[in-house]
Amino acid sequence: MSQSDVKFVTRFIPPDHISSITFSDADTKRLDEIHLFLSTFDIRRFNGLKSLSFGQTNAQSRQQLTILSKIIDQHNLFPLRLSNLDYLVEHIFRPVQHVLKYIAIRICTYYQYRNILHSLPNLQTFQVEYCDNNDNDETVRSSATDRTYHQLKSLIIYNCQLPIEYLRLFLLLTPALVNLKLISPRKVYGPVFDGSFWEQFIQIRLTKLNKFEFFFVYPIQRNLPVHSVNSIIATFRTPFWINDKHWFATCDHVVKTSQIILYTKPICMNDCEILVRCETLPMNSVCRLIKHRTNGRDDITATENLTVLDLTGYPIGEQGAQDLADVLLNDVTLNTLNLQETHIGDSGLEQLTYALQNNTVAMTIYISLILLLTHCSFVQTLTKLHIGNNDIGTVGAQYLAVALRNNLTLLALHLPLNQIMNEAFQYLTNGLQYNTTLTTLDLRFNSIGDNDAKQLANVLENNKSLITLDLSGNSLGAAGVQFLVDALTRNNTLITLDLRGNNFGAKGAQFVADALPHITALTTLNLSYNLIWNKGAKFIADALLYNTSLSILDLSGNDIEEAGAQDLANALQNNTVIFSFLYS
To answer: Which residues form the signal peptide (predicted)?
Structure first.
């Protein structure tokens, strides 16, 4: 900006109309502009000035800043904003110590803060963007017994990185505080999250404090003690907080980012786009599961209760499980919860189980932990259980068997890709023998063989509840298929059977064909991709002539050629039951 430009501006903006000035000499060009400004304007004419801000100041401009101190001396500025603290305390504050009442700075240490309080006896409000502990430990300790400063009434710290012992000393300097605003990201749980710590400190050291706003956050880490949102907020429910001070705090567990946030309502500052929170209100012990959508800092645009929560792959751990359990004790809207690969552990599992016992809403749960199976018998709201691709093995199958024998509400069990075979499959079928509620069983891709099929056939002969059975992608041979279809001739409930991708060949198709006229309940049968060829197609075609129940049949992917296709076509012409037939 040239001198002519500055003069041109002055024609339209008289100095006495200016209420705020910001100086910054981060580069040479900016420094020249400061010189130009000072040479053009008569600082005595800035009668309306209320705010003066100093950016990065260096030695070359100190003479000019000393001149600018006269502006402060002339006017009751509110506020003064600056960054080069040490120099400005020495050269600007001391000459005007009886004038300044409000200062806002970018960075401040304990020693600098104490020096400001000592230099400005009339300072009432102090605001700092970042507060750290770069001071020497000995300096802090030696000053701990120094005088206190009663002039400051309002303290605002936006990013407090001080350890708790330094933060305590920081606050001890100003026992007459009336307003305190404190925002502090912490690395781990600590005293700042404890309402009893603050209660005792305020009652003894900050007796005049009338308004306390805070925002504390820490990341949840595995292998550290669990502090649930309920246990944290409980320390803020005492008469001191609720009745005496009327300070109401909220504690959130931001589930997907694994953070605990403790805050007062006026400065809720999370700027994530979508948050799933376990929120506890200070007036009672009820937790809520909600979704917050925000457009930025302090701009919440929508809040809604959740009916579906998918946390697949998020390591929420025991902490997350505990807080979700607190939610489920009272939640009446959530009906689907996906906890696959969430590492909730034994303790978290127990908490969830207890909560589900007391939740009256029928719920679908997707979970990958075998240990849940130990407790399924006690979860009387569980209707669907998905445990896919977890290799649950023999031990998991034992737990599952116990659950199947005792659970009275489970309707659907999905166990794909779990290598349930041999001994593990025996445990599973033992549990199924005593189950009277399960209607859907999904056993896809479990390497189930002929011996396993024999055990399952024994279950089917006596089972009165199972409606859908999916055995696709296993290792059933012709003998295994024979066991199953023979059992279905004595079963009156199973209506859907999926045997695709077992490659049992034409012989297996023959066993199906032999049993089909005697099966009266089955309506849907999938025999695709089993290499039955033309010979197998002929067996099925002959059986369709006597079919009385089957309405949907899938024979696709069996390499059936023209002759086999013709046999099937002839059979379908005389079949009045089948209305859906798949063939390729």
So the answer is: none
